[in-house]
């Protein structure tokens, strides 16, 4: 029995238990043993994370695909798991220690601290997994993995060692994003560019051999900088090779103010003659672009900052080298001064010597750590790198050949731009939480990379015996006794970048590098659903690692979804206070309503403007389905055993079978093409408009009438169509559909495992390719057999039934539209004249006269050769239907009203177009404000078009 009121929370809790107890989502179910696999790996959320709207969208779309393919008979593996999130997790635990006034990480020591992190992970690390379950994610939760599981750690170590052995992992001194608060290198993804109001300092650098005078421009060259403190590390000045102002100076030296170091003027296209003075200071150790300029011209790299962002001058051999004799006083005075305090003092000193030409206010972007909020420094340091350029070549080739395709396709351009300009990938992090780098250092600093410490010790002892650093006897003793080799080799303290382990996710989660049968069965995966912001950081790296180690692309399709913004189009952020919490929406409206909202708005390449009102609207949609199902139940609608909808005799029932088949094809094709919004829109129209508004309404006279074969058939058809709706809607709204599936017929089987209405008639080319790539027909896990439905109703069409019922619907709809446009009160009945009606219309109209009169608020329906004078004429499927309105409405007053409304629409259009024509407004206003004006203009134009149409109709009534 269906409850009177739809209560999402009750249903969600109950259905979650049902799915879990039945192991509905488990991959490799016995009944799917011979089915073709379908695999998706979840983008692993951070173990510290909480469900945000991006997660909600991403996982809703993945779940739609998985539930869809599961219903199509595939052996679905949606692989879940979480990421250890190195910096984020370490910060959480360190903050917790500080709040509890407990010893910090350094005081605690590495081993004890890591014990504490694992303890926190056990207690709080699964929060987001439980939240994903609340959303309805149908992952195989029995296979949940964690990037620091033993098996995944084994994969990480093997990959590192093999890449190092191949020369694709190496150690180098390069610039990295350095967080001076967390004291670690961080990835570009962890850097946020923040707009800051600062200054641009124009500095005079004296030209060697000339007597410097602030009044003599020929004695100096002017450079501009936003970071005067880094000038201490300048090793060059760059000018554009075609800049005539400086061509005679190229190759000469300037004398670095305050420091006295002589640095060369070089010609390089990096310098822009149109910006500032056209000359730029080059500080290779403190700027990424300068690093490249320095490499091109062989300039020295002098780092003048330490790890904590203080000047490091006094014991800095690189800095002191090349200074004039007795020039260390400045180094002594400024050594260990914080970078920002040093900036102020250095500018004061420069001004006192006349080296500052001018200072201008300057708003610019400054990189900040996304977690520490500290200003990030380009920092020259020894780190471990991956030769990404080499690994990127096959990854680019795979996309160019079509082995992997992007949806939407335009993201391929972004992928190629990043990959073609790829830099060495810094993979080391100065943290404790993460995969510790499997490298050990001997007493002379020689590196030994190995999968285990014992293996590293063996290599090291063999090497040092051969080099005669130790004797063979000492080597044997040290190999047998750990105490005797204590301190002889030490392990690298750094850990790997989190993206390194997540790059292996598509195959490490399946059991690689062990010879696990799941690797053979479920790799490569089918689709990856992710956001555009990690195409480079995650997607590209999975492509590189998958191709290198598995010799196959990790996924055939990459679906890139857009951002979820607020209802005005602004990006959600805590600072703006416009963040929408998906869990709050689930609490208020239910997970199904949120899921359907996100799917319905997920148009390819278009950001989602999320308004709470939309979620509320789709909760009402769920309520509509609930009430329609209750109506069916109350009228004893049920599908009898052996019922075949294709054999229905009643026109109305054949029509709903036709419409159901049409909708099934639309939804199926849209999901296959990743057009989630089109699929959702199609099922929405079918449920609300076709089934509830028309079919059930048109069926009511039969259902409420006397018993008859027509009534029996209609009862069966109402229930059958409802079941088809539940199947089509299930991937989008799993909770309510599973509940109604169970309570309407007390079924033993789950809707989640029921057959999709439209099944493939055989293996698709994609499936055949997967079968061919597998071990073959003798493989016990793979067989070409597919689960096939007994009846494929999506092939059913009935043009005759569609023509008749479609005519009724179009006629009633147009009459209602005219009544609304003309402000005809509901109580006022109007006549209808079918002018010049065809024999077909004359034959069908009497069957539906009572229904049309009731639904369109008509007093009479008659036939005539032509439309009477003063009647509004409607064209319904090529034939004229006329509404005589003389005496029914005040034509003059209605014309005045419409003219007034058209005037209002014109004013709105003019106002919006005026703003949009203002270049200053378009350039300076927030993106969402400009978009809002465009929407206002389009809405006003559409409103005016409808009003003009109504005005034209009104002219017919005069």
UniProtKB/TrEMBL annotation:
It catalyses: tRNA(Val) + L-valine + ATP = L-valyl-tRNA(Val) + AMP + diphosphate. It is found in: Cytoplasm. Its EC number is 6.1.1.9. Pfam families: Anticodon_1 (PF08264), tRNA-synt_1 (PF00133), Val_tRNA-synt_C (PF10458). Residues 18-610 form the Aminoacyl-tRNA synthetase class Ia domain. Signal peptide: none annotated. Residues 895-957 form a coiled coil. One of its GO terms (biological process) is valyl-tRNA aminoacylation. Keywords: Aminoacyl-tRNA synthetase, ATP-binding, Coiled coil, Cytoplasm, Ligase, Nucleotide-binding, Protein biosynthesis. Belongs to the class-I aminoacyl-tRNA synthetase family. ValS type 1 subfamily. This is Valine--tRNA ligase. It comes from Bradyrhizobium arachidis. The gene is valS.
């Amino acid at each position: 029995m269906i409850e009177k009121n739809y209560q999402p929370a009750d249903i969600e809790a109950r259905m979650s238990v049902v799915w879990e107890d039945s192991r509905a989502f488990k991959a490799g179910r016995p009944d799917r043993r011979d089915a073709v696999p379908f695999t998706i790996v979840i983008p692993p959320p951070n173990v510290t994370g909480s469900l945000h709207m991006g997660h909600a969208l991403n996982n809703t779309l993945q779940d739609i695909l998985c539930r869809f393919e599961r219903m199509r008979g595939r052996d679905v593996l949606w692989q879940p798991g979480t990421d250890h999130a190195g910096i984020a997790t370490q910060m959480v635990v360190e903050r917790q220690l500080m709040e509890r006034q407990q010893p910090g990480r350094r005081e605690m020591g590495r081993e004890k601290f890591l014990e504490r992190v694992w303890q926190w992970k056990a207690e709080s690390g699964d929060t987001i997994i439980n939240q994903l379950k609340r959303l309805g994610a149908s992952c195989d939760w029995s296979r949940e993995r964690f990037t620091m599981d033993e098996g995944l750690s084994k994969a990480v170590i093997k990959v590192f060692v093999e890449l190092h052995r191949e020369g694709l992992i190496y150690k180098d001194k390069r610039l990295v994003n350095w967080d001076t608060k967390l004291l670690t290198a961080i990835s570009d993804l962890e850097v946020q560019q923040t707009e800051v109001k600062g200054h641009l300092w124009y500095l005079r650098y004296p030209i060697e051999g000339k007597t410097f005078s602030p009044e003599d421009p020929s004695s100096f060259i002017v450079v501009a900088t936003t970071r005067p403190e880094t000038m201490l590390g300048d090793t060059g000045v760059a000018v554009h090779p075609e800049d005539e102002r400086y061509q005679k100076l190229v190759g000469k030296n300037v004398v670095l103010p305050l420091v006295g170091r002589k640095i060369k003027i070089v010609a390089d296209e990096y310098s822009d003659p149109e910006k500032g003075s056209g000359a730029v200071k080059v500080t290779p150790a403190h700027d990424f672009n300068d690093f490249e300029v320095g490499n091109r011209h062989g300039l020295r790299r002098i780092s003048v900052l330490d790890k904590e962002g203080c000047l490091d001058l006094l014991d800095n051999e690189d800095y002191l080298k090349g200074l004039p004799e007795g020039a260390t006083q400045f180094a002594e005075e400024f050594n260990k001064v914080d970078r920002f305090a040093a900036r102020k003092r250095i500018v004061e000193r420069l001004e006192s010597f006349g080296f500052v030409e001018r200072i201008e206010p300057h708003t610019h972007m400054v990189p900040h750590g996304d977690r520490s909020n500290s200003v990030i420094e380009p920092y020259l340091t020894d780190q471990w790198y991956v030769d990404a350029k080499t690994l990127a070549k096959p990854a680019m080739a795979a996309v160019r050949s079509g082995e992997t395709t992007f949806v939407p396709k335009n993201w391929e351009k972004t992928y190629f731009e990043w990959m073609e300009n790829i830099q060495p990938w810094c993979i080391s992090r100065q943290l404790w939480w993460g995969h510790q780098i499997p490298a050990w250092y001997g007493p002379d600093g020689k590196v030994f990379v190995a999968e285990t410490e014992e293996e590293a010790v063996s290599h090291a002892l063999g090497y040092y015996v051969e080099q005669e650093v130790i004797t063979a006897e000492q080597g044997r003793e040290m190999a047998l006794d750990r105490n005797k080799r204590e301190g002889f080799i030490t392990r690298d303290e750094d850990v790997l970048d989190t993206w390194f382990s997540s790059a292996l996710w598509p195959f490490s989660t399946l059991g690689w590098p062990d010879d696990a049968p799941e690797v053979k069965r479920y790799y490569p995966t089918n689709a990856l659903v992710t956001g555009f912001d990690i195409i480079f950081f995650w997607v590209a790296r999975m492509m590189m690692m998958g191709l290198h180690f598995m010799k196959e692309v990790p996924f055939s399709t990459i679906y890139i979804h857009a951002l979820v913004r607020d209802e005005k189009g602004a990006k959600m952020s805590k600072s703006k206070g416009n963040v929408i919490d998906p869990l709050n929406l689930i609490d208020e409206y239910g997970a199904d309503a949120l899921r359907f909202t996100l799917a319905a708005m997920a148009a390819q390449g278009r950001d989602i403007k999320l308004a709470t009102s939309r979620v509320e609207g789709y909760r009402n949609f769920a309520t509509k389905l609930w009430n329609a199902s209750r109506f069916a139940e109350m009228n004893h609608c049920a599908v009898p055993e052996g019922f075949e909808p294709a054999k229905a005799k009643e026109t109305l029932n054949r029509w709903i079978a036709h419409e159901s088949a049409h909708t099934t094809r639309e939804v199926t094709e849209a999901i296959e093409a990743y057009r989630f919004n089109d699929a959702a829109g199609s099922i929405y129209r079918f449920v609300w408009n076709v089934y509830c508004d028309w079919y059930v309404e048109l069926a009511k006279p039969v259902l409420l009438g006397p018993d008859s074969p027509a009534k029996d058939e209609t009862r069966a058809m109402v229930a059958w169509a409802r079941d088809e709706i539940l199947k089509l809607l299930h991937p989008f709204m799993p909770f309510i559909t599973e509940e109604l599936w169970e309570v309407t017929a007390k079924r033993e089987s789950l809707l989640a495992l029921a057959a999709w209405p439209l099944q493939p008639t055989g293996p698709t080319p994609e499936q055949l390719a997967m079968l061919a790539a597998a071990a073959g027909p003798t493989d016990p896990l793979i067989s070409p057999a597919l689960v096939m439905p007994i009846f494929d109703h999506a092939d059913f069409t009935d043009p005759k039934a569609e023509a008749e019922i479609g005519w009724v619907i179009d006629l009633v709809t147009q009459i209602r539209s005219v009544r609304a446009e003309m402000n005809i009160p509901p109580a006022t009945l109007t006549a209808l004249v079918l002018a010049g009606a065809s024999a077909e219309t004359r034959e069908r109209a009497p069957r539906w006269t009572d229904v049309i009169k009731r639904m369109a608020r008509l007093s009479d329906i008659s036939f005539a050769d032509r439309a009477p004078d003063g009647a509004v004429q409607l064209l319904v499927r090529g034939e004229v239907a006329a509404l005589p309105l003389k005496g029914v409405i005040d034509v003059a007053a209605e014309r005045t009203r419409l003219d007034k409304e058209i005037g209002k629409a014109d004013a709105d259009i003019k106002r919006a177009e005026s703003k949009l024509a203002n270049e200053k407004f378009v350039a300076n206003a927030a993106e969402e404000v400009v978009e809002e004006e465009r929407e206002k203009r389009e809405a006003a134009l559409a409103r005016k078009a409808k009003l003009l149409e109504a005005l034209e109709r009104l002219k017919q009534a005069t």
